[in-house]
Amino acid sequence: MHFFPPLLKTxxxxxxxRFLADVTHPEMGxxxxxxxxxxxxxxxxxxxxxAWLLDSENPKRKYRYTWVINETQDGHMICVNTxxxxxxVIEGIENGVIKEFQNYDNIQQEVKYGDxxxxxxxxLTNKNKPDCYVEIKTVTLLExxxxxxxxxxxxxxxxxxxxxxxxxxxIEMKQQGHRAVLFFLVQHSAIKTVDAARHIDKKxxxxxxxxxxxxxxxxxxxxxxxxxxxxxxxxx
Length: 236
Known about the structure:
alpha+beta; six-stranded antiparallel beta sheet; 42% strand
């Protein structure tokens, strides 16, 4: 995924009201950009980080710029725009990087399914094999300290009843004879491993364990992130 127009380099002042980020630019001064991330964004930003923004090129939009990437003062790159996840995974399938999702004839997005009124991120179909239900979760939470290994990434970064529902739905799809996959899309350059965040949402972690025991597949891929592009790079 290439960025066009090129991203604008700014310095982050703060994130606030969940959907807003105040930044400063040497020529444009201080202004507010849209933050397309409804999560807690724990450990993802700090005052003084580099915020890379995409210009909507729409002067009538209230917040013309959208925060896409945060570059920490340690040099870590984090994609904070979770809306890009489906497209990145589809690109990874189509260019052959995601080996586990090859040989399907059709890819559908946001298909209604399950008993809890859910929409699956991707539904992969081939008349010669079971349907494949793929729930995509963006991983940006990097934890550090004595309780965590180096490069330890986790999902979720806050209690998520929605995520719990998705795990129950995946278990049900597996029980019905379909293929069910929880796909962790790692969008933090320092994360090397992924696990359920038991220290944040124990109920989610318990359901995660149940899902794996029920045969739900868990797959995690790292992304390569720069101010020019984001692409899925390797299985972790």
